Amino acid sequence: MSTNREIVMSGIRPTGYLHLGNYFGAMRNYVKMQDEYDCYFMVADLHSLTTHPDTKELRENVKRVFAENIACGLDPEKVAFYCQSHVHETSELYLYLNMMAYKGELEKTTTFKDKVRQQPDNVNAGLLTYPVLQTADIILHRAKYVPVGKDQEQHLEMARNFVNRFNHRYGEVFPEPFAFNFGGELVKVPSLDGTGKMSKSENQNATIYLADDDEVIRKKIMKAKTDQGPAEPNTPKPDYIENIFQLMRLVSDASTIEKFEADYNNCVIRYGDMKKQLGEDMAKFIAPISEKAAFIQNDEVYLRKVMEQGAEKARASAAKTMELVRAAMGLNYF
Ligand code: TRP
User: Fold this and answer.
1) pTM exceeding 0.85
2) 36, 42, 87, 324: least surrounded by Cβ within 10 Å?
3) How far is ligand 1, taken at its centre, from the CA of residue 143, in Å?
4) What superfamily would CATH give domain 7-180+299-329?
5) How far is the CA of 134 from the centre of ligand 1 (A)?
């Protein structure tokens, strides 16, 4: 990878399908960054073992995540796009960092507490040290910028703590990593049921996945909540209506949006027509991405090449860092 550009690293968990929220949030952000930074994008298969120990599903999921991300514009020639388990240095660094992570702080982590509630029968040590592994992922490339959503802020804060402890104990090896988004605020993609954002696990009918076919997309959109329409001109929009407009702004032409804005303000809006239009525009937007993803996912030869090439780039960077780490720690005995 080229030399003096700043380093970006992020991880994608291979659980669940990519949805519109991922596309307009994370994915577009990655694609914009690939020309200006040295980017390491990783599929976090080891992390997924903390919650999904069955690797049968994992195999397909990992391939799909690769295919979907490439279909969205991630270019494996420009970035290092790799699988976490292919870079063994990660596990070595994780082990060293574990000696600097305290039980108390790990137990206080919000995501850990959530998981304890969600899977009380499998509160494994990997769950507890999840943020340590994530720190290893990031600092293995001595990355400074980590494009992630709000839910990862606490993990980043922990990463900075681990980095500072390491540097203080063994000498300056790592820069502090920070959450970062290219071009400011991430676009929010509202869910179709009027509550919050589209998300992987919650209401599947309120989330549009890149793998949904045209018919499914149309149906999901037609089910979005609406009402009788405004009774007076220029009434502020209720949230669930604003959400439909917001989705339209992501995929429809300016003239279409203007028409429905005007209809709304003049109290002549027909939500059935609006949703029909949005369904068409959304299907048209997603079809080329999902077709491309399906095509790539079936091309085992290509996928394998991508993974190998990504792992090679990631290992080259990791090997350099680990030399520094072992030297700083005094693990080079002669
Ligand atoms: N924890 C992240 C998530 O749940 C995934 C992840 C793993 C990650 N390793 C990372 C994100 C390194 C950023 C950097 O989405």
Assistant:
1) yes
2) 36
3) 13
4) HUPs (3.40.50.620)
5) 6
